[in-house]
Amino acid sequence: MHNFRAQNFGLALLFTMIATMSVAALPVNRRQITTSTDSPSFTAAGGLTASTTAAAAAESGGVAAGNFTPTKPADWPTATQAGPTPTSTVASASDQYLEELSKAIDNSGNSQFTKIHTGDMTYYSQGLGACGDVYDDNSFTAAVSHLMFDSWPGGDISAQNRNPICGPFVPGRQALNSAGLMVSVIKSSIAGFAEIGGDGLINCVGTTAAQCHVPMTATVTHGGKSIQVQIVDRCAACAEDDIDLTPAAFAALADTSLGRTDVMWQFNAW
């Protein structure tokens, strides 16, 4: 009995030593117990957050989904002004009809232009927009936030239709003649015109028959689909990165019954 108990005790001690050695030899899985500071965060619904999605879009070269490729407007000017703001805003002897304003603006240094915006998209009824042009609900046009519109380089809140965010003016011009009548002074193959007033400032007529700008465009993406819209208006209720679409543009991306949903968008550089 004594020898049997001693053998049992020896076996128990041996098993205990082996178990202890095995536990000590197991490597710790530090990845499971360490909080990563660079892992992507997720929304409650399980998708990537807006900031992570925007970063991924930037890395891939833009916001367009799938094979979507934005199209350069046929009327987009071939010449670009020097600098981020209009080089001339009042008619002068050297630029009697402000033809310089029919050139594009160099927005390469404007972070609002180059960044990828993540916010909400909504829709509204179109008409005469802040840029001075008239569109209907079937157009693929949009309004940006008042925060962006009002702070755009070269913009003037008291003269919204002269804000560079509206895009370059069409080449056509009307101006006052010696009799005080507004007459055509520059004709163009592009429909529409802008007016040069007696004060030397340029303005839009604000009718469907007189297109005033060649609008900048943006690619808008939601739910794996992308569209291209023209930026033509100012949204007074939008947060800085929101975009307000026409009903037709919204419906191309989501059910209009939503009213508001997440979006990612970016200006197109031509």
UniProtKB/TrEMBL annotation:
Q: What is this protein called?
A: RlpA-like protein double-psi beta-barrel domain-containing protein
Disordered, as annotated region? 66-90
- Quote the biased-composition stretches of kind Polar residues, using this chain's numbering: 78-90
Domain RlpA-like protein double-psi beta-barrel stretches: 204-264
Q: Which Gene3D superfamilies match?
A: RlpA-like domain
Is tRNA-binding one of the keywords UniProt gives this record? no
Q: Which residues cross the membrane?
A: none
What SUPFAM superfamilies does the database record attribute to this sequence? Barwin-like endoglucanases
Q: What InterPro entries would the database entry show? A: Expansin_CellWall, RlpA-like_DPBB, RlpA-like_sf
Query: Which keywords label this protein?
Result: Signal
Taxonomic superkingdom = Eukaryota
Any signal peptide, and if so, which residues? 1-25
Family annotation (CDD domains):
DPBB_RlpA_EXP_N-like
